[in-house]
Amino acid sequence: MTRLCMCHRADSLTMRAAAILVILLLLPCASADVKVEGWREQSYDYVISNINDFPDYVFLTSSAIWGWEYASVINSTGHFGGGYKLDSFIVHAVKASDFDWQEFSGQENASDQQAVNCTDYCQNNALIVSSNLTLPKAASVQEIIPLQKIEIYLKVNNITSQALNISKTRMVYYYSNGTVQEMAPE
What we know:
Elements (H helix, E strand, L loop, with lengths): L1 H25 L12 E10 L8 E7 L3 E7 L5 E3 L6 E8 L5 H5 L13 H4 L6 E2 L4 E2 L1 E5 L4 E13 L4 E12 L4 E4 L3
Parallel strand pairs: 1-9
Antiparallel strand pairs: 1-4, 1-8, 2-3, 2-5, 5-6, 5-7, 9-10, 10-11
């Protein structure tokens, strides 16, 4: 009888340990945006080099994490960048004749906005076409590297009613000592 009781206790302890292990595994892991010593974040600056070849289009960005909640219009120089370092950009295009500034921004004057929440207007808008490129907003760089700026040049290859075809053409690294290094895109 003692042997039976000891086996029952062992089974009970095993079941409790297994239950605790399952609970611990199912709990969400804690993570944080922690700075790693010796490293820093370097934002990417993007340039659509041939944006002026498409004067009939408005180019937009959205967030890979938050979608259309953080959208912006790319200016006529084709430059864009900034934002939360762990996020990425997705580039979109819409014919200028189909684009409603007020609906996009939710305000009369959208030019004052860096980023707007245009979910209602943009999310299911069949007139807006998207690129399949996901463009990171930043990279981690060792602090000892005197890098000041990274520019990534993009080219719009074509725009159809179904898709925006963009490719990376080159990356330019600017250093604090005046050195400029151009490389093929990653």
